[in-house]
Write a structure and sequence with these properties.
Blueprint (H helix, E strand, L loop, with lengths): L2 H8 L10 E8 H18 L1 H5 L16 H6 L4 H8 L11 E2 L24 H14 L8 E3 L4 E3 L1 H7 L1 H14 L6 E6 L5 H13 L7 H14 L4 H13 L6 H4 L5 H8 L11 H18 L6 H10 L15 H10 L2 H5 L2 H8 L3 H8 L9 H14 L5 H8 L9 H7 L10 H11 L3 H14 L27 E9 H13 L3 E5 L1 E2 L6 E3 L2 E10 L4 E9 L15 E2 L4 E8 L5 E9 L4 E2 L3 E9 L7 H6 L5 H7 L7 E2 L2 E9 L6
Parallel strand pairs: 1-5, 2-5
Antiparallel strand pairs: 1-3, 1-4, 6-8, 6-18, 7-10, 9-10, 10-11, 11-16, 12-15, 13-14, 13-18, 17-18
Length: 663
């Protein structure tokens, strides 16, 4: 709809005498019964006198078997659903008001209280009486098991049909069933009366093309209703408003209490709404990316206790969460939410780049935060060492303070006993490391003696190094995705495959080429170690091997003279390679599922004959003379791998199962 048309129609908004249709919002019987039951229970708890003599008129109506209607509705599907499935293609009886619930997925769930109101003005008792009164006053316009709320809204068919695909479908069906003479009455099911003000805001947007000034929670709730009502342009407008709220250069008076991170704090406070806002993954990713950008700019230091109390009173920041190590948790909570858990942070190139730009104070807040999750403390140590390498200007004092926040006793055995003693980095002295090894596995009686003796040796057993509490495991979240399993797409370019094939035809017995993950780069970090997918060719063999290789991170700066080979495992995983049929459909050409296989660091786990092929290469002498820039010959050499290639690459996927478990 054009801006000029919206402007002209906006003048009509609210004039009942010019309206030519009506909107009626209602909730189904299941929701109404639950609301009545909860309201009755609350009243009985609040007023013991009233509980002794309950008003029968205030109780839910009894069902056919003598049970309360609420209990009956909670046992099964509402009558409206059954009616929609039996009364014609649209679930409507002839002559009934049009309802598009059969065409569109169920109404959204309850989200919030009414905007601009308070609990005091919308108590359960008042809402219950209002619901009952409205149900009695409009029985002819609604299904028998539905309850209307709010006044009927005068509207205009031109605006509704032009601004919403949902309303357009309802109006078209009305004309088909009722003809052009009757005034359309469009019924819209909602789950809860609290959704009504946000649904009305979405309808108002169709008239004005504008959103009311509001906070992040209100914008997310309005966005959900706009998506449900299919209001064109409203979800996009909500997204733009959220971005503007987060990046506001001149915060409003309400935001000033929270400073430049007020918008980020608001979004954090209503983070549970993000997963229910029907937001596309790309949109959510952009929103969180902007939050991280703001934190990189402004998370220089956590506010003091006075600032925290002021922010809490203003409702602009989350509550302070005390850390197990004693530091303030406010800034850390924001960082841990926006940056996700440690494996996600290390395995996303863009997020890792933003982490490297954090200040030392921000890194300290993140590491000190108890809600910062990880697969193993080894990944947290690797993250910190990566940051220190990228920030050489960090002072020695800050460096030591950051290292003191690593929970060394929670490191994997591979790190704690094999790699940490070999690093040339100044993390912990060899004497204290031996003390820590003994302390980590000592019974409590012995630990008590060791704590008494630690002071004379200069060891601080109250620091995070000796913390008995592991960090939480990754869980499902809007930032990092699933905590149970995570998949990483990888590929190998045709030029790299060609080069490896050539080597096995001319110079080498074996040639290996490593893949590259789409979002993670050359490797995936698991339990503080790097894992690389690889393709291996053997001279004279008509098959390619697929392996998952483990390497030591170079940032550890290890003295590579271990007495025995160091072994490691990424945990349960599934490694796949794809192929494509003639129709372009993807199939799994090979997969390997491992439960808990260990391999030596510097080698890999896999299968030498994973991808069979028929060699069509020229002789060794001819292959050696082929120029790397000869594209035609390259295609000929790769013809043997053609079933496995798409867009000039071999594609696969690594799925880490139980990604949230500690290593």
């Amino acid at each position: 709809m054009s801006a000029s048309l919206i402007a002209s129609l906006s003048r009509l908004f609210g004039h009942q005498k010019r309206s030519d249709c009506t909107l009626v919002f209602y909730c189904n019987a299941l929701t109404a019964a639950k609301d009545l039951k909860e309201a009755s229970a609350q009243e009985q708890q609040q007023d013991s006198a009233a509980a002794k003599a309950p008003n029968d008129a205030e109780q839910p109506a009894a069902g056919p078997e003598g049970e309360p209607a609420a209990d009956q509705d909670l046992k099964g599907t509402s009558q409206e659903t059954a009616s929609d499935s039996s009364d014609g293609p649209d679930g409507q009886q002839p002559g009934a008001a049009v309802d598009a619930a059969s065409d569109i997925a169920g109404a959204p769930t309850s989200l919030s209280n009414k905007r601009g109101g308070s609990e005091a003005t919308n108590t359960p008792a008042k809402r219950r009486k209002t619901v009952q009164t409205q149900a009695r006053s409009q029985p002819e316009a609604l299904p028998s098991d539905s309850t209307a709320f709010g006044d009927p809204l005068p509207a205009h068919t031109l605006v509704l049909s032009g601004g919403s695909e949902r309303f357009r479908a309802q109006l078209d069906r009305w004309v088909e069933e009722q003809g052009n003479g009757a005034k359309p009455v469009l019924r819209v099911p909602l789950d809860n009366p609290d959704d009504l003000p946000h649904a009305l805001s979405a309808v108002k947007f169709m008239y004005t093309g504008k959103l009311d000034e509001s906070d992040a929670a209100t914008l997310l709730r309005e966005r959900r209703q706009a998506a449900y009502l299919q209001v064109e342009g409203c979800t996009e407008a909500c997204d733009e408003a959220l971005l503007a709220l987060i990046t506001a250069a001149q915060p409003s008076q309400q935001q000033q209490a929270g400073g430049p991170l007020a918008g980020v704090s608001q979004l954090y406070c209503c983070r549970d709404l993000l997963s229910s806002a029907d937001m596309a993954p790309a949109t959510l990713r952009k929103l969180l990316d902007v939050c991280r950008q703001q934190l990189v700019k402004h998370a220089g230091a956590a506010p003091d206790s006075g600032q925290q109390q002021q922010q809490q009173r203003a409702g602009a920041a989350p509550a302070v969460v005390p850390s197990a190590t004693g530091g303030p948790g406010l800034m850390g909570e924001l960082l841990a939410w926006a940056f996700g858990d440690a494996p996600f942070l290390m395995n996303d190139l863009e997020v890792r780049k933003q982490m490297l730009e954090l200040s030392a104070a921000a890194m300290e807040a993140l590491l000190d935060c108890d809600s910062f999750a990880t697969d193993d403390e080894s990944t947290v140590l690797l993250m910190l060492l990566t940051w220190l390498e990228a920030n050489p200007s960090c002072t020695a004092e800050s460096r030591q303070r950051l290292l003191k926040l690593i929970r060394l006793t929670q490191l994997s055995d591979t790190y704690l006993f094999r790699l940490l003693p070999l690093t040339t980095r100044s993390i912990i002295s060899s004497q204290e490391l031996r003390f820590l090894h003994e302390y980590a596995f000592a019974p409590e009686e012995k630990r008590a003696r060791m704590r008494r003796d630690a002071g004379s040796a200069g060891y601080d057993v109250s620091s995070a190094w000796y913390c008995d509490v592991p960090r939480p495991a990754p869980t499902d979240g809007e930032v990092s995705g699933s905590g149970d399993s995570r998949s990483y797409e990888w590929s190998v370019g045709a030029a790299d495959l060609w080069a490896a094939l050539q080597l096995t035809e001319s110079k080498r017995e074996t040639a290996r080429v490593y893949g590259k993950f789409t979002r993670s780069g050359p490797c995936v970090v698991v339990d503080g170690l790097e894992w690389y997918p690889s393709v291996q060719f053997i001279k004279g063999e008509d098959a390619a091997g697929i392996y998952l290789y483990c390497k030591m991170p170079s940032v550890l700066q290890l003295n590579l003279t271990p007495e025995a080979p160091v072994r490691a495992s990424p945990g349960p995983y599934r490694l796949e390679v794809y192929k494509w049929d003639r129709g372009g459909q993807r199939e799994v050409a090979w997969d390997d599922t491992c439960t808990d296989d260990f391999c030596r660091i510097g080698s890999g786990c896999g299968t030498p004959d994973a991808l069979p092929f028929k060699r069509t290469l020229p002789s060794a002498a001819a292959a050696a003379s082929i120029s790397a820039g000869d594209a035609q010959r390259q295609q000929q050499l790769l013809a043997c791998l053609a079933p496995y290639l798409k867009d000039g690459k071999l594609w696969g996927c690594l799925t880490l199962e139980n990604a949230g478990e500690q290593g």
